[in-house]
Amino acid sequence: MTTENFIPFEYDQVEQKESLERVKSFYSDINKRRSLRVFSDKPVDREVIEYEIKSAGTAPSGAHKQPWTFCAVSNPEIKAKIREAAEKEEYENYHGRMSEDWLEDLKVFGTDWNKPFLEIAPWLIIVFRKTYDLEDGIKSKNYYVQESVGLAAGMLLTAIHRAGLVSLTHTPSPMNFLSKVLNRPENEKPFLLIPVGYPADDAEVPDIQRKPLEDISVFYE
Ligand code: IYR
Q1: Dihedral of alpha carbons 29, 43, 109, 203, sign
Q2: What is the pLDDT of residues 48-62, one digit of tens each?
């Protein structure tokens, strides 16, 4: 292993008892995260969004290529364009493109082709994955792009929750209209559209449960 470019790792020791306290407290907070479809139009400062994106940008990535771009949109005209294009696609999805089974699975969420939150939420963060890097016309390879951008998106949702805001992981399908509206280069493909803001005063969420630990884990001791 060549380590000439290495620097000391900064680490604050945490005792086991405190680890448990910290992770229990983290779990009780993150367990309150819900995907919201009803937003308030209350504004959110740009700096909050910047730090959420900076947090997402700390995610690990294949060969540290950081193959992501986060587009943060508060401009009302651009939000209106995104809503119009998304609803056009979703109308087709709900009227023939999605299977009966799929529509049945979605009933509990009460979704349809209408997406008013795309204009009401103060910010839309559109996550792009860089299928390859493109700098000054020169292409170079990225690795494990889906995994890397998925991790960054998860950290973004966590940061949004930590800031006391709510979000939705939205995937209007197909999403290529986002490249056009946001004028993104050819090496970037839309990955997720995440409205961010405060919940509407009367917001409700579906009554669904998370799987218990026994159903999502296997321990080998
Ligand atoms: N993209 C559609 C449909 C949809 C699909 C899944 I999978 C969901 O978890 C929720 C919705 C929409 O946003 O309505």
Answers
A1: positive
A2: 999 999 999 999 999
